[in-house]
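Example 319, ligand zinc ion.
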Amino acid sequence: MRKTSMRAKRTVPAVIGLDLGGSQVRLAFITPKGQRAGRILTVPVTDRGLKAVLTLLVSSIQRLQSDGPCPAAIGIGIPGFIRMDEARIYRSPNFPEWKNVPIRSLLESKLNFPVLIENDANAAAFGESWVGCGKGLPSLLYLGLGTGVGGGLVLDRGIWHGTEGLAGELGHITVDPNGPICGCGNQGCLESYASATAVVRNYMEKTGQVRPGLTAQDVGVLARRGNQKACAVFVELGQALGVAIADLLNIFDPERIAIGGGVAGAWSLFHKPMMDEIGRRAVRPVRLNEKVRRSLLKNEAGMIGAAGLAYRHVGVKVF
Ligand SMILES: [Zn+2]
């Protein structure tokens, strides 16, 4: 049945979107309208070495291809700093051994179709502006609240990479000059308040108890049950996000700010303090409820966005 429908659609180009995370690879065929065609293949990453990951990527792509059409291209979202001119991964927090890796040419030598590489949060930003919570809007800023805080800027329907490819590092906006030291070396970064790691750490600091295995989701459950210290963690998270978002609105005046990542699941716990803070600090706090939205594509944003960018890479207009 599936084979027949694939054959019928042979004239429609097919592109694979792939999200490479530190613990798993997720990939699927994505249509030119940004819809997923068929299943998502999820494969665990057990060895983060370059050779092992390359082998895993190629075998995962071949597995997906075995029950689909030959793809016109593949778009891959990868965490880390990418030199876009050479499609090299300069550095990645999830793959610390990788330094200056020409990932596109390594993959293209093993696959018979073009490969497009993009930072994962940039890809998610593109996905949200293509078919997500900012569908069709020319400007959208994305904040991904995960293990860290990633960011991406879509301006005039394209990703703004900056001169060194480092634009959109929104997790490292200073929200408190006297705040905790961040992994990047700066002090008081947004990431120290709004990441899943920060939620757990800040809760343990407030309670003075070390609780191994505690997750940000657990802290969310405690807050929903009325635990005051857990609630305070999310109020502070909302305030920190509000400070950063007010700055972003003042600088870019975008049509949409999309908030995604696992911590966005605690939306109702931090939404009010976030909006209050934005209202206090934005120069023109207009249409805020329309502008600041939760991600629609959730954990598929990066995969779908990477596919959209791959369509553009091979000359298919997506929006
Ligand atoms: Zn930082």
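Summary: Residues 119 and 217 are 25 Å apart (CA to CA).
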